[in-house]
Design a protein that fits this description.
Keywords: Membrane, Transmembrane, Transmembrane helix. The chain has one domain. It is 60% helix and 0% strand. The chain contains two helices and no strands. The longest helix has 27 residues.
Length: 55
Amino acid sequence: MTQKQWLIAVILTFVTISAWVIFDILHSQKQVEIPQKWQEVVEPINPNFETQLLE
């Protein structure tokens, strides 16, 4: 490969990686809203076990 071909390959690689990083950042900043119905379903449960219920 000539020096000009290497330069073109490096520039294309740089542009590709830069676009990849920019699109990844934009994608990760998107906020997904969870409907109220699902928020109620995914609430954490109480980790304390009540032994009084078993008696």
